[in-house]
Amino acid sequence: MIGSSFAWSNDNAIIDSSTRFHPVMSDSGMVVSQEIFASQVGAEILALGGNAVDAAVATGFALAVTLPRAGNLGGGGFMLIHLAEENKTLSIDYREMAPTEASRDMFLDTEGDVDNAKARFSIQSSGVPGTVAGLLHALDNYGTLSLKQVLQPAIDLARNGFPVSTDLAASLQARQPTLHKNPASKSYFYKADGSGYKYGESLVQSDLAATLERIAKSGKRGFYKGRTAQLIIAEMRRSGGLINHRDLADYRVVERAPICGDYRGNRVCTMPPPSSGGVHMLQMLNILEGWDLQALDHNSAAYIHRLVESMRRAYADRSYYLGDPDFFPVPVAELTDKKYADFLRGQIDLQSASRSKDISPGLASAAAHNQSQVDKLRSIPQESTETTHFSAWDRWGNVVSNTYTLNFSYGNGISVAGAGFLLNNEMDDFSAKPGSPNGYGLIGGAANAIEPKKRPLSSMTPTIVFNRDGAPVLATGSPGGSTIITVVMQMILNIVDFDMNVAEATAAPRIHHQWLPDRVFYESGVSADTLGLLRGMGHQLSDKTRRLGATESIQSDGSTPFLYGTADHRRDGSGVAVPAAD
Ligand code: GLY
Fold it and tell me: What positions does the entry give for L-glutamate binding (predicted)?
């Protein structure tokens, strides 16, 4: 659907889908998300006088209604906030936590192999949800409007219904085999006879509206205690889940200092562990900074070769060094050190491809990946459509970049009966067995082993980039599991190295490599000649194209009030919304 464009307005907001090469422009703030009604909610909050945090929180709750495959109450995520007045950037970690009854080998079968069905689609795959605590923490500390004001639009969408988009109809159809197995999900997302909603039909979610109303009335207690908590625990008991009342009451948001690095004079601030995204994006940018990429030309073979070899080395490190920093001493400073990048760059042969089996995590040669293990791990990850990103920017220069998720599309497919929302399957982001690939084909080490109250490693990479003068110039992020990190990095490269505007940067074909499987994934649009040259260098290319990520981004020139937003056309239904002019 690249190139589609439409616009409409109500009293408070104008929604516009950008075209392939032209961003939407506004001088009064902007919200970009994967679902246009949710973007509109954010713009209406800006029109009410709310700041970017108010708009982001309202959009997050609205997406829980209108984008149930990834928008959520039952999942978790990361929010980066830049506060203009204080000139301060912070991150909020509201990632799910393992229940206290979780244990290292809980997903292993009697043979000691990972039981993937249990790790991904059983109720035990759910971590303790963090979204409600995270969004409320942001609002309480950095918002300006009341909880009732920011929640009312989501309540209205759930209570009164909204017209089903082609994207929602299609994704519910694709996920029907899983969602039909759970009676609550079947009743929430399909008609009484079990058939799917068609484009334009209204989806009403009364139980979800009641849950949102409890949150509007009682704040965090409206979710982690009282009626909603009782419904969650009843679901756990019915289906054999591990989350108990204490786990819910004990859920904690963590504010963490973002990790920031310099790339060609720009300051890139992004999510620290338990996301792997920030660490490895900065690591790859450090490697790439040593070459004049612009001189190589965008998506030339020489350029893609350098990207792939940087990605290969960063993802090898990811497999060994990354986990929850509250449980494992993640060597962030070492991995993002420019000298380490110099060392890695020095290992790269500019004429021919390395083999992933020859690359080990680099900081310590002790990391062992023997040949038989590597051969076993050559599974191709399925295309992931889950997780979602949104960006919000207000007229005062406050910026929010938020990525949150249920992990897989529609999480584990299990809804909390009576409460109207789906549960995550984030426990699969742990390494159920160090050395075994998860749902994205990613390998993890002991750093990411399951432990009670630990947060699973993530790839989510909400990012804000600042120019040489310290002004924010880009907010971006993406869904896409393991591909998130490389997709977000290519947005930065496209803008910084190739001077693209945000729409061009979004539309440009992307590539991805993650060490294992040893394969270059690429989008349609990378030229056949380039692919031939890459094969000639020894790269193993995927046998078909795939779509990589879905960035929802806002750009500024850093010196005027104008903002430029682009919703990624890779996902039907995404949109930019701006407050209507007074
Ligand atoms: N569940 C996907 C991620 O957190 O990266």
Answer: 95, 405-407, 429, 458-459, 481
